[in-house]
Amino acid sequence: MDTHQTRERGDGKVGTLSKGLGWLSVGLGVAEMAAPAALARLIGVQPDRRTRTTLRLFGAREIAHAIGIFAKPRQPMPVWSRVLGDAIDLSFLAWAMKSKRTNTERMVGAVVAVLGVTVLDVFAGTSLQRTGRVQRPHTKKMSVTINRPLQEVSQRWREVAGDLSSKGQVTFRTAPGGRGTEVSLEIPTPGRLKMAAGRLLHNDAEQMADGDLRKVKQLIEVGEIVHSDSSIHRGMHAAQPSARKER
What we know:
By secondary structure, the chain is mainly α. The chain has two domains: 7-133, no CATH class; 139-232, Alpha-Beta Plaits (2-Layer Sandwich). The chain contains nine helices and three strands; from the N terminus they run αααααβαββααα. α1 (3-34) packs antiparallel against α5 and α3 (49-71) packs antiparallel against α4 (76-96). The radius of gyration is 32 Å and the shape is rod-shaped.
């Protein structure tokens, strides 16, 4: 299987888990805000005024977590904020467990449930963070405007471009104002070390592709590649057009 396809599927699974945690936040947040007393009794805590207020605040926090996750389901920070919330929940349960009026069995069940969700949150946050560190291929886009109609350029391109199309993605479109055809070539950019070596050895991929693109422009417009004197003569020479031409 192609590595890129595998990566996309992996990203999709992590994104689905992230959204699932977002919906969990919605459900828990609504329950904490709408029925704090019932939820307090469910986890074994006495539903006094302080507890109800605390649970409503926790509910608002969960809703905020959900909004963050749904806004950026592939970003790790909203999920990591849930981990922080889990730590707060565990601290609250640890504090509540000291009370003599606490139902210990239900409290232990609540602690186990929060720990289980914490494991999911940490897994999702770590996976999203790892996915975000995967380097996506960078590209460089270069364009020239050829003073010929779009149909003619696309037909002549196959005749004169050679292997230029294999270097990247080529697109044609009518230039602004109908002034010829804009040809764009998008090529993958090498790493910094490879780019520096290419420039040192005078075989930089970007410069060569840009030069080839401009040669194609000349071939389509005038039927030949025009050289300046400085490009074909060495040393001192007369300032006159050269008779040398390349077809």
